[in-house]
Amino acid sequence: MNHQHTEPTTSSSSSSSNHSNGGDSNVVVDGAVIVGAGPSGLAASACLKQKGIPSIILERCDCIASLWQHKTYDRLRLHLPKSFCQLPLHPFPSHYPKYPSKRQFISYLETYARKFGIKPHFNETVTAAEYDETVGLWRVKTTSCNDDVSEVGLGLGFSRCCKNKEYVCRWVVVATGENAEVVVPEMEGVEEFAGAVVHTCHYKSGEMFKGKRVLVVGSGNSGMEVCLDLCSFGARPSIVVRDTVHVLPQEMLGRSTFGLSMWLLKWLPIRLVDRFLLLLSWLIIGDISKLGLTRPKMGPLQLKNLTGKTPVLDVGTIPKIRSGHVQVPL
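That's the Flavin-containing monooxygenase sequence above. Prediction below.
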């Protein structure tokens, strides 16, 4: 493969069969197929390009970073400093704040894609990927559907045109993220509830809940911040804490908690770092058990390493709980 040529070399052919009013086609990619046009997918594409390896990105939605663009609330900011969130080969603009806003982060990703000439294939869903040992290549199958308006009799009707493709490539990079799928818990009696039931991915701001009582189910970073947002719009939120939870201040000793943790881990074992973080947390935000929040027995960093459960970085919700503006049912 010519590593000086970084644009993906593709060739395609249409098969004789049609599926759902659309044709099937095969595409040969001289490089990698990346699944997902979020931050990881964009970073993988840029790094491969720097090494002279061409790639294409397949994205099931209509834009890059679809989770950030379509499924996040308005007040969202990066919970970690920008220095820990920037993608390879291109830092955040120097004028950006320490914790960039949602809009700033999306703008940064769009600039990143333009800089490295990344043009994902949008509205194309990967349905299967398997390694073909007979030819030593990957086969990635996708489908894309469009609703076309057509005249049906005297009225208008919709016909769905779907196209299937199979990409044949040397490598596959899966960059679909860990929060791409919506999880809605089963709640007995919810169908009889007369009020609005909104998943966090559809929540934008607390404006529609002004003056209302709102129950927030889940005490992770999103649930805690939604409570804070509801308070800013004059709502009266309560939060259901279903499990033990670690809550840490976003900053300690003038540094981000995450940055301080990473620095301490260079010198100390994780158990000692956890104890230090919990001691500082107790000094800064107090004993959260008095607020109805119980900490796990395992330290926050150990718990993250073993289970993937991220500690909550408090951006102002704990003072609201302490003042009574956010209720924690016991």
